[in-house]
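Thread: Newbie trying to understand structure tokens

Hi all, I'm a second-year student working on a class project, and my supervisor (Dr. K.) asked me to get a predicted structure for one chain before our next meeting. I've only ever worked with sequences, so writing a 3D structure as a token string is new to me. If someone could post the tokens and maybe explain what I'm looking at, I'd be very grateful. Here's the chain:
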Amino acid sequence: MFDLGLSEMLVVGVVALIIVGPKDLPVMFRNVGRFVGKAKGMAREFSRAMNDAADETGVHDIAKGLKTATNPIGSALDSVKDATRDLAEDLNPGKFDPTKDIGKLSAERAASAKKTQAATARKAAERKASEAAEALAKADEAEAALAADDTPDKAET
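---
Reply by user tm_fold:
Sure, no problem. This is what the structure looks like when written as tokens:
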């Protein structure tokens, strides 16, 4: 609200010392402190009363609706996070420890990755074998066709 730096407060202190005097200065600062404290208390109470009135009238619900309307992706992600948290709590009430579960998950993922790699390698070997068989069959057909073309015709002799 007020932007008072150290230099401004020093100037105010020196002016107060000159005007009020060193004898009455602590009393004046104590009174100013009480006044500022009362003003802050009244502002805090006013703010609290306004928030209570807003809660009673449902302004927060309207604000949440406006937030959802202006940022649907963010509100959807918030609801997904809440659902995930609820599901984790339902599945493992009070015992969800991410540090322990991560080790178990990583071991399961490593085993799954090995199975996937083995299946992929097996399929690749089968595909290469079938391609080699097809190439061999084509080569045999081509050789047979060449051999058939090289045989002399009996009609010409």
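A couple of things are worth pointing out once you decode it. DSSP finds five helices and no strands in the chain. The longest helix spans residues 98-150. Feel free to ask follow-ups in this thread.
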